Amino acid sequence: MTTQKMVTIMPATGNKKSWAVQGNISAIFNEIPFRIQHTYSPKFDVAKGRFVLKDMSDDRLQEIVTALSLTDDRGNVITKANVYNKRDAFFNHKLVRATLTRSAKMLDLSTPLQELHFAILGTYSILAQSKSEITSQTKWYIDDQEKETTKVINKAAKSKQVLDLYNKLTARQKRYVLLAISAQYPKLVTTRITKETGTDLVEALLFQLATDVSANSSLRGQSSADVFIEIASLKPEDLAIKSMIGRAISEGVIRKRGDKYFYKDEELAFDYATLLSLLKSPEKQATYEAIDRELSIIEKAS
Questions:
Q1: Are residues 114 and 15 in the same domain?
Q2: Which of 106, 135, 251, 280 has the highest local Cβ count within 10 Å?
Q3: What's the structural domain count of the chain?
């Protein structure tokens, strides 16, 4: 017996920007988009050269094709879907198109057609995967209370982990963690951290960064809290070299031009990962020591 899995899709009625009617004469026209039926056909990704479905394998798609037994324009039963053919009879069948209106819509994912509709809708930016992921483009969102509850619990657990880790760090370690982050993730630390930067500012900047558990698009879905946990959990020797790179960049010992890194007149590396690997290698031990000596002189200077 198939287990029933219900999903509720809710209209993001509070997202006025997404639902606005351009050039409307009267506020009454704001209701127009809610009264009509919105139809979404399977999306053909030109770059990939195929139809795309969210979280559905080609094997599962073929099982659904068989289960639905739709007929083409000539009355023949469609037995296979060709994901690479933009004019494929199955993908262009009217029953395959998914529809949404202002009203909440429940989909039973144990039903092949509704499972397919859900996979089609998931490829459009108008559908947010949860209420917390609503953007300016969102018209509907998936109301999954279990998923939302899990997210809240996970965020709380991550916040606790961050605070525990942060409070265990000494003032010097906090500075080194922030410097390491500034080198590896420069977009997260826009303030230049030098020997003159006070401890209060360093700790404030790191705390602000560490406690942000929201997903960051520049981090491919990770949060700055994830980055803090990653760096603060490094082995002492790994944190030392990453923080040294951060110090060297901030103090101008290592210069960065675009993605390239230079020391004196020598181009060290074409990206951060290469620089890190290079300074860890025995072949560049002399360069590592030279940079470290320059930093020591700078830090001892009044």
A1: yes
A2: 251
A3: 2
What range defines the domain where residue 98 resides? 6-143
Q: Tens digit of pLDDT for each residue in 185-235?
A: 999 999 999 989 999 999 999 999 999 988 777 787 789 999 999 999 999
99 Cα distance to chain centroid = 27
Euclidean distance between CA atoms 100 and 103, whole angstroms = 8
Where b means 16+ CB within 10 Å and e means fewer, 20-54 reads: eeeeeeeeeeeeebeeeebebebbbeeeeebbbbe
Backbone angles phi, psi at 244, to 5 degrees: -65, -40
79 and 210: one domain? no
Whether 1 is covered by a domain: the verdict is no
Write out the two tokens for 248. Answer: 């060297």
Task: Judge if 15 and 97 occupy the same domain.
Answer: yes
**77 and 179 in a common domain:** no
- Looking at per-residue pLDDT, the higher value among 279 and 1 belongs to 279
SS3 state of residue 240: helix
Kindly state whether residues 169 and 290 are assigned to the same domain: yes
**Cα(157)–Cα(97) distance, rounded to whole angstroms?**
40
Residue 127: φ, ψ to 5°: -110, 115
Q: Name which of 105, 234, 82, 219 is nearest 165 in CA terms.
A: 234
- Do both 215 and 280 map to the same domain? yes
> Same domain, yes or no, for 114 and 35?
yes
Question: What is d(CA 96, CA 70) in angstroms, rounded to the nearest whole number?
Answer: 9
Distance between CA atoms of 140 and 148, rounded to whole angstroms?
16
Phi, psi of 30 (to 5 degrees): -65, -20
